[in-house]
Amino acid sequence: MNSNRSLSNTSRHNGCSVSGALSVSAFIRDAVSIVHGPAGCAHQASSLFHSTMIANERFDIPYIYTSALLEEQIIFGGENRLRESISEALSYDPSVVFIIGTCISETIGDDIDSVCTDAWEVPVINLNTSGFLGDSFERGFLNAIKGASELITTCDEKTLSANIIGEKNLEFEIEENFSEIRRLLGLLDMDINIRFVRDITTEDIPNFCRGSLNIIREDPSGLLTQFFAEKTGIPSIPGFPSGTSDTLNFLEEAGRLLNLPWEEAAAREKDYQRSVFEEFSDLRGEKITFDSFGFQDADTQFFMDIAKNTGIKIDSGGTVIPIPFTAPVGTTGIRRMLREWRRFIDA
Predict the structure, then answer these.
(1) Exposure on the CB side of residue 225, measured as CA atoms within 13 A
(2) CATH number of this structure's domain 17-150
(3) What number does CATH give the domain 161-276?
(4) What is the pLDDT of residues 185-197, one digit of tens each?
């Protein structure tokens, strides 16, 4: 058993690492994810997936398995029960099995790494989570991305394409955001190599090495950028672009990293941006104010700049515009957001 049972920094404030890890591993189609803990841990995550994915009009809810620890295993250790669960999961013929630890398995000191190194017929990978114990949704998400990367191989062939890393599979407008990145890369005559990890199989993952550029959904800490730079040597852009200037900078940075001519692409994007703001010329002179609902951590200045470009005035007595959970991606994201603003103003 693992004797590391530190309870320091325990908090439920930032969510559970189990859900964060599952938001990655469950989107590898030929993988099995086992939540090692009481059945309630898997149930909680399943409920989150069900409600969020239905809201996103996704009805193919991933299967989530559990070792379903009972009182006896919690008292005497759950490693043998985990082995039984892995054997049961292998009957579904997965290509890889991911193990997701919980508060309980961490507290009782189960040595998940040791179980994973048994002679299994497919890779069994510990995603190094421990529920709420010193972890968070974000930490589970990051650890799962790193765990899945163990399946990445090396290759000599390169294509003019990008790897999209760390899309948030429970995020609203995830497909719209991806389409915008694909559109922007198309201006540079680039394609998408792989979405890591979004609706892929283990057969897709070895192709990761064929990409020429890594684009990370967001990486404020720089951890994923550093990790993939060290692992693959592929240059990275550490975030999807938000706003007009950031979108133009995105094209320039991608071009410079790959020694591609980017000036024409940026000029075409500027024309598109002008056309977007002209589309909403009917909003000029309208008055709005922003509401963060007391918990949104958004860059209000960003939204004020968009309002200025559209000719909208910021006024405390104006129409209340809710700040979205995430900033719009690219120019098309701004267009969708302005359509929402118009609906609020016209209501």
Answers:
(1) 14
(2) 3.40.50.1980
(3) 3.40.50.1980
(4) 999 999 999 999 9
